[in-house]
UniProtKB/TrEMBL annotation:
It comes from Micromonospora avicenniae. InterPro entries: CHP04076. NCBIfam families: TIGR04076 family protein. This is TIGR04076 family protein.
């Protein structure tokens, strides 16, 4: 289970997970120039962070983006999204597979978010 980070808002009224989306494998050819191990992090609810000097394909990002808000929250027992963590880029030549992992649980104030 992900570690809990409570220092940022100890009086917060909600908790969200920070996420790491990492290229797990590429079963085709890397059309966009990404490599296995490339990643981005989603922290503090909506902050997207990339390692300096690296990129992440916008089409791969678009394919996983609709699932990230749900992966940031606690999910019901038996929810398929609680069990599954692999997502595919839509480029058929590339067949790039990304893994979404929770990195830590962060307490936040919902009034600070939109």
């Amino acid at each position: 289970m992900a570690q809990v980070e409570r220092d940022s808002a100890p009086d917060g009224d909600m908790e969200l997970y920070d996420l790491r989306v990492q290229v797990d494998r590429i079963d085709g050819r890397s059309v966009c120039g990404m490599r296995v191990g490339d990643y981005f992090e989603l922290t503090d609810s909506a902050h997207l962070r990339l390692p300096e000097g690296r990129h992440f394909c916008v089409y791969a990002l678009a394919s996983v983006l609709p699932f990230l808000a749900a992966k940031q929250r606690d999910l019901a027992t038996g929810d398929w999204l609680a069990r599954d963590s692999l997502f595919a880029c839509p480029d058929p030549e590339e067949r790039l597979i990304m893994r979404v992992e929770r990195t830590c649980r962060r307490r936040m104030n919902s009034a600070d978010l939109t």
